[in-house]
Specification:
The complex is a heterodimer of chains A (196) and B (116). Chain A has 196 residues and is α/β, with parallel strands linked by helices. Helices cover 30% and strands 30% of the residues of chain A. Chain A has a single domain, classed as P-loop containing nucleotide triphosphate hydrolases (Rossmann fold, 3-Layer(aba) Sandwich). Chain B is elongated. The chains are: A alpha/beta (196), B mainly alpha (116). Chain A: Belongs to the GPN-loop GTPase family.
């Protein structure tokens, strides 16, 4: 039937579809570790260009109000079933890359915001973003760096002033099973919101 | 001439995309594209280098982000070039289901449960 095609996916392609979950959080919180733990391929790095307002340059030279910069992000892939692929995208950590988050987040099933309880402030910005500037379901996950919780989840919720409807979990994101469980929580939360 | 700085990829995009930096096709980064079952070697030979690489890579269905990475092209340019190939019917965009579709969420759930 498709004898002229050399595409290995030829039979399945027509009905294939994809979904996306975004993994966000501050710099060094373990986003790429989480992607790598569960991805069936090594995390891939792609680059995008964005134009960002550059305050320092503005002050030095009023003639230049924008700079173009290269943004790298890591992503991975998980085959869910024979016709569905889940992509995981780690957000670029630094605040100056935020405008790119809108592009990353568009069409996502949901987002997993990772926090490190020793550097909670690194993830404030990500929490702010999902609370105020995005309309995808999101949850927060405390990264248990050595499998040990150093703070009660209730304390973390309070410190982040998380709204009560946002799920808060803890996971060792070096473990594929833990990451799968965290993603499952994202999907369940999304389903709950979809039902209304 | 040992180095040809004009061929550096940071310069190429403008040339390749004829100045365009965005595409009218709102392709999501995880949207799946492929050549479908219609890979055409003659067409491939006629394309500009960046588009040809992209067209070749798309023989195996993959996401916009994967194409960007495997072709070494920035995301924005990848979108523009995919848009061109879509316009002439040489690439296929695979069904992108709404992300809040309950049937999709149920399939995701079943798949993830197997990994826990």
């Amino acid at each position: 039937m498709q004898a002229w095609s050399d595409s290995p996916d030829a039979v399945a392609t027509e009905s294939m579809t994809s979904a996306k979950i975004v993994i966000a959080g501050g710099f060094g919180v373990g986003k790429t570790t989480a992607v790598e733990a569960i991805s069936e391929i090594p995390a891939i790095r792609t680059e995008s260009w964005m134009t960002a307002a550059a305050a320092q340059i503005d002050r030095l030279d009023p003639g230049i109000d924008k700079v173009t910069t290269t943004v790298a992000m890591d992503f991975g892939r998980v085959t869910i079933d024979e016709a569905l692929v889940l992509y995981l995208f780690g957000t670029p950590g630094q605040p100056r890359f935020w405008p790119m988050w809108d592009d990353l987040v568009r069409g996502a099933v949901g987002a997993l915001v990772l926090v490190d309880t020793n550097h909670l402030e690194n993830s404030f910005a990500a929490v702010n973003y999902f609370e105020n500037d995005a309309d995808v379901p999101w949850i927060v996950c405390v990264n248990l760096f050595h499998g040990v919780a150093t703070h009660e989840l209730s304390e973390v919720r309070e410190a982040l002033t998380l709204p009560p409807h946002v799920p808060l979990i803890a996971a060792d994101i070096r473990s594929a099973r833990n990451v799968a469980q965290a993603l499952l929580t994202v999907v369940d939360h999304a389903a709950k919101q979809a039902v209304g | 001439m040992a180095r040809r700085p004009g061929l550096h990829w940071k310069v190429r995009p403008y040339m390749t995309a004829r100045g365009r930096t965005s595409s009218r096709n709102p392709l999501l980064i995880h949207t799946l594209v492929s050549t479908g079952n219609r890979y055409d070697p003659l067409l491939a030979a006629s394309l500009a280098p960046a588009s040809r690489t992209l067209y070749e890579q798309a023989r195996r269905m993959c996401s916009v982000a994967e194409l960007s990475a495997s072709c070494g092209l920035p995301l924005g340019l990848t979108r523009v070039l995919i848009g061109d190939l879509l316009k002439i019917g040489q690439l296929v965009v695979h069904d992108a289901r709404p992300s809040q579709d309950l049937a999709l969420l149920e399939r995701l759930r079943a798949g993830l449960v197997r990994l826990t």
